[in-house]
UniProtKB/TrEMBL annotation:
<keyword id="KW-0223">Dioxygenase</keyword>
<feature type="domain" description="Cupin type-2">
    <location>
        <begin position="102"/>
        <end position="168"/>
    </location>
</feature>
<dbReference type="InterPro" id="IPR047183">
    <property type="entry name" value="GDO-like"/>
</dbReference>
<protein>
    <submittedName>
        <fullName>Cupin domain-containing protein</fullName>
    </submittedName>
</protein>
<feature type="domain" description="Cupin type-2">
    <location>
        <begin position="275"/>
        <end position="341"/>
    </location>
</feature>
<dbReference type="InterPro" id="IPR013096">
    <property type="entry name" value="Cupin_2"/>
</dbReference>
<dbReference type="InterPro" id="IPR011051">
    <property type="entry name" value="RmlC_Cupin_sf"/>
</dbReference>
<dbReference type="Pfam" id="PF07883">
    <property type="entry name" value="Cupin_2"/>
</dbReference>
<keyword id="KW-0560">Oxidoreductase</keyword>
<dbReference type="InterPro" id="IPR014710">
    <property type="entry name" value="RmlC-like_jellyroll"/>
</dbReference>
């Protein structure tokens, strides 16, 4: 369906000199006629301003590293090269209401603590020695590890390697928070948090999957996961195991959600995250749904077709799927698996009853590419 002048129930008022004068008089009272914008503000189906976009890690990496010499981390607040959707420069979004960027920390560098209303997550792209202190808890994270910084938790980061930088991908819901005029930001009064003695304590307490603390560490009532770090060394074998037992999803291959171990729900109220494997030679079928997704290629290479455009990707690349865009993924290799990390706003879509999903039924489930 498209906008049409002859569909009953849709605005189809022509412009006359009388109406033009009337609109001007309304505007003089901070008012307007709904029928002049109704078709635009209530489209037949989602009309995202974001466009499918691919960011090459090979292209961006030298630019990210260049920032190490150009700005001090604490002067910049955070030393991050943000990825901006060509259609959403107005709100610094990578897609939809999601923000993302590549943060770099030099050897031995550390930053002071802050907190904000936006929820954050990290996916480590390269470098050993990254650490973050979230809510007083020190986490060490390595390549392909996933970690969360729930909203309004104090956090500070650093890199304790003495010879190599760390680059990790940040994902936040900043545009969502700002769309609701709910943004707050604070720097820590003492610059640094008091730290618990045990590193990775949430992982040690809550990281055993189906085995939960019993009779201790209970009473967790916060609306986010008590587990703050999800190591690759646990996530990747979980994918391999699932691939032995299931065919996975026709649209995503073998896909697992990083979840709150106490509820089985998303890691945070506004952001969800997945890890998915495309087996050697696998090409998924196309589907579309509300909600926006940002992918990071954790392993391997392949391509995705998004709204009819083909994007080839390889390790470290980032790409996005706007809401309601048809998308399908394919592994380029006949011998190796490809793994995609992704994060999304699905928890928002679901909690607000905005979720909708459909399969692409034509052409054996594959979009024509242009
Ligand atoms: Fe932050
Ligand atoms: Fe999807």
């Amino acid at each position: 369906m498209t906008y049409s002048d002859d569909v009953l129930g849709r605005a189809r008022v022509g412009e006359t000199p009388e109406l033009k004068a009337y609109y001007e008089r309304l505007a003089g009272h901070e008012a307007g006629a709904l029928w002049t914008v109704a078709n635009e503000i209530e489209p037949w189906y989602p009309q995202p301003k974001s466009v499918p976009t691919h960011w090459s890690y090979a292209d961006l990496r030298p630019l990210v590293l260049e920032s190490l010499d150009l700005v001090k981390a604490d002067d910049a607040g955070r030393r991050v090269v943000m990825l901006v959707n060509p259609g959403r420069k107005d709100i610094s979004a990578a897609v939809g209401m999601l923000y993302t960027g590549l943060q770099v920390m030099g050897p031995g560098e550390s930053m002071t603590a802050h907190r904000h209303q936006a929820a954050a997550l990290r996916f480590v792209v390269e470098g050993q020695g990254a650490w973050t202190v979230v809510d007083g808890q020190k986490l060490k994270v390595g390549p392909r590890d996933f970690a969360i910084t729930p909203n309004w938790t104090w956090h500070e980061h650093g890199n304790e390697s003495d010879d190599a930088p760390v680059i990790w991908q940040d994902g936040l819901d900043i545009p969502l928070v700002n769309a609701h005029d709910a943004g707050f930001y604070e720097v820590h009064p003492n610059h640094y948090q008091e730290r618990g003695q045990v590193v990775n304590s949430s992982l040690l307490t809550y990281g055993a999957g189906e085995l939960r603390p019993y009779g201790f560490a209970d009473g967790w009532t916060k609306p986010y996961s008590p587990l703050f770090a999800y190591p690759w060394e646990q996530a990747y074998p979980a994918l391999l195991n699932a691939a032995r037992a299931t065919d996975g999803s026709p649209y995503d291959g073998v896909i697992l959600e990083y979840s709150n171990p106490l509820t089985g729900g998303s890691v945070m109220p506004t952001l969800g995250a997945h890890l998915q494997m495309l087996r050697p030679g696998e090409a998924t079928q196309a589907h579309r749904h509300t909600g926006s997704v940002i992918y990071n290629v954790a392993k391997g290479s392949g391509h995705s077709v998004i709204a009819g455009r083909r994007f080839d990707w390889t390790e470290g690349d980032i790409f996005c799927v706007p809401s309601w865009a048809w998308h399908e993924h394919a592994n380029a290799s006949a011998g190796d698996d490809a793994v995609l990390f992704s994060f999304n706003d699905f928890p928002v879509m679901r909690s607000l009853a905005f979720w909708r999903e459909e399969a692409y039924l034509d052409n054996d489930g594959h979009q024509p590419t242009n």
